[in-house]
Write the structure tokens for this entry.
Amino acid sequence: MPDPIAVISLQQDTPELARAYEQLGVIQFNHGKLLLEPLALRSGERVLDVGTGTGRLAEFAAHLVGPKGHVVGIDPLESRIAIARLRQSTNLVFDTGRAEDLSRFAAGEFDVIYFNSVLHWIADKRTVLAEAQRVLRPGGRIGLTIQDPTAPHQSRLLLRRAVAESGLDAGRLTAHGVHAATDDELRALFDQTGFVDYRSELRTLVETHGSADELLGWSESSAFGNFLDGFSYAEGKRIRAAFAELVEAHRTPEGLKLARYLRYAFARKPD
């Protein structure tokens, strides 16, 4: 459930972070392709990508639905939508927008809606899912990936350890999964918002990073400015140095290998 002391700000994103996210975001793109597989997008379908970031996965979805289909990607961060718009085509458009308010879209407008590593940044999940249910056609499908509080990412555990080894309070960390949800919590939310055929699976995803700097860059850009927020510059420098030393223990010939855990959840709107 939401952490009452955690404050996730969308105002801290910058064009530099957006560019870093675009450069390093292939990790999340690969997670998203695994999300789209069970959704089985078909030619001619209309799809909504909520929290699209810089649009890489939406572009992939547009290829799946083909020229007769249509994909819309929305994200609240203007700097990321600016990059996403470079991907626009005849069947793919992007705009700024929030998951909690899909009022620009008509009821039953989409066949599929998905959220790729988005919902754990949002406290009011019930409103988000109710909006998703409204804009789906009868029988429409929904899919999402979300962090599960029972299985924190390996990098997050190492970060907490780095904070402690720097002589600081790890409880000051506010980013990375503060609004995660368990399977039971998700099932209840889907039931409350009128979805049926809920199913989910917690998956282990092993990521390879070239260096600690690359991993830190991904963490900072994916948290849109909230990474190590609340620590001073000097404290952050100590934490980063301690973190880099800790992750080196996970180096292999291919690079730094760390496990990330995501819950993949699916349901549909009743016919």
User: Anything to note?
Assistant: Residues 2 and 179 are 4 Å apart (CA to CA). The first strand starts at residue 46 and ends at 50.
